[in-house]
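Sequence dictates fold. Next comes a concrete instance:
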Amino acid sequence: MSRPGLVRLVSLVSTVVLCWAALSIGRESSGSALVPGNLAVRTYTAATTADVEDAEETERKREGAAAAVAVVYSNDVASEEGVRRRVDELLALVGESILGDSASGSEEVEDLVPPVVDTSAGTEVVSTAVLTGRLFFDVDGDRVLEETETDSYRTDFGLAGVGVAAIGDSAVVRGVTGADGSYTLEVPTGEIRVVVDATSGDLPEGVVADPAAVTVDCTAGECSADALIARADFLDLDSVVAGLQQATRVDGSTLATLALLAQRDFVASLSGDVASPLVDQMRFVIKTRLDTEFRAGIKQEDLPTVRSNLQGSPPLIQPPFPADLLEASQLAAAGVIDTYLVPNSFPDEVATEAAREEARSQVEPVKVTVLADQKIVDEGEPLDAFMIEAILKTDADRGDAVPQAALATVVSVLVAVLAYYLARFRAQFWAKPRMVTLFGGLLVLAALAVRGASAMEAAAFSIYALPAVAFGYLAAVLFDNRMGTLMALGMAVLAAAGTQQTGITVYALLATLAPLGLVSSASTRHAYRNSVVISAAIAGVIAAATAWLFYADPNTNPLPQIGQAAVWGFGVSLVAALLIQPVLAMLESWFDITTTLRLLDLTDRNHEALLVLQDKAFGTFNHSLMVGTLADAAARAVGANALLARAAAYYHDLGKTENPLFFIENQFGISNPHDDLTPEESAEVIRRHVLDGLELAKRYRIPTEVTEGILTHHGDGIMRYFYEKARSNRGGDVDIADFRHAGHKPRSREMAIVMLADSVEGACRAAFRDEDPSADVIAKVINRVVDEKVGDGQLSECDLTMGELTRVRGAFLDALVGHYHQRIAYPNFPGS
């Protein structure tokens, strides 16, 4: 088997395998049409009895159970601890704020000179007396020692362990108060001043002596001093409250009560009664109530209610709390809680979702008994999850399964039929294995598109997501309309095998055919854009028609279904045809295909290669444009590809840019360089422009079909001028092969027309330097050139008929008569 034959065989086998694989993606034993939202391809009836879960009803009940679950709240421990911490800070701050910073009234007394004693007489000069007294803490501030009150807070008491000093004229005697604050000192007789003495033991912190000293006259053996009075150095209550309000948000009455409790705790600590400080009792009561409220959970919206309840039912304080401060303390406790209370209960999304999930799990699946022979769904009715489950559970889908072997067989037959058609009737494509591979690739892409559209679950009419228009567009542009028709046939078969739906099969066939006539008549990019829009509109109409015929419910208004199908068909076709443009450009390049769009690019005067030709060989450039005009007119006259003929004409002399001055049309005001060359050397230069043209065509990525114009515009004809010159110089002993062009004869009508147009344009340019270009003369030149090419056998390999050749002559004549038209001679104009 030849190499091209082997490539074709591999391409065809690969196409079969890949198309089968594409249509089989995601397919199991059941039909691919059993997808929620798809339309039932037939009426399904239960083959057996089965309990089928109604997934939608089950889900609805489960969601109802989940919705009935209240939001779960969780307590924020950090918020609770913050409140407790602020309560502690407040109570500590109150205790620190009640005392002033004045001195205690104690003093350190220096020793005086000891009394003088007369030893000669044996008696002491100074006599002594026993001094008694007492230091007491004045609780009520009346400066009177009262120890008979029943309320421990209002009972004055002595201060033990405080140093006292009796200061006389001749001595200082020190002592320390006893347990009840009393003291006894032996002092010299005379006037004695008694003071609190820090030397032996100071007053407690926050206590001041008032008065600081008492005086007593000790002239007898015993004397008693007035009591030394101590009091707490409490700040004025209003000042305390004002200072605390600047540091806290607590109201004044609450702060005043707390300050009184702190004062009583201070006094109690001096008396030794520290069993249960009042502030600590308040702390316990406040935190106990806080714990109660926090355990119940306080939401943001519940906070006003909780605060209102505090005022109506403040924390309860039990005796033996001082009765005179009991009610105020309860309100103060409520005030502190009201000030610092914050929400501690917040929605817990994780716990709530867990509870709802638990509620969902408790709902048993809803099951419906489907009896044998019971109809499940009618043909054309949209499928839902319950219907599909019932079809599968009751074996109603028997016959829906697509055997993979059968699918592979259908695909194989399709590819074989298309291959036979190409080999039998489209030899120009069959002879090019790359074109066979390309067409096979389009079939594979079509199979993928069919599978994708059939697998979509977005809507009932998502089957119209099949971009059939794009495949017709690709086939028509890359090949021709006849190949586009083959593509439509292939698309229809693949749609039928992939979806088993009559409606989508008909849609695939007609939508693929839709752009063929439009694309074939488009010769400008604007026309191509119009063809895309019109093709998409036609696809929308086809989708609406097939939906109405195959899928619409006759018992309901069909307009919504028809409209939905039309929107899908139009939208998908328009987007796919627009997105296919970059794919088309890649395929043109990869497979070296000359499409109409590519020819439009090549015939653009701004093409890079044409700009080089214009810049380096201006005469050749003008000659090429005229040849393009002639070739275009002749190709249109015989129904050939006018764009291809024009493009080949534009680039046929591209190789002359390498040595432009060796060609007569570029020799402006200079001598002919061929005058200095031998005929053989001149022939080599002329021959070289074909080979140079082929090299430049590769550089500028000019497709092979257009490059054929470079290779065939002289065919293998003889360079007659240099051949005759060589014969004249050598007396006829010349090898004619040395003077033939480096090319071959044209093998298509377009390339033959380019050859003739090139020769006719050159002959006319030469002839009409000395002769008026009348129509008869132009016709003679055309006939002479064409006859010469025919006589030389240069047209023997192309399929131009004699009738077509006659129309070519006429087209040349019309074009040249228009080019060489007569002009009016203006009076007194130079040259007239």
Summary: The longest strand covers residues 128-137.
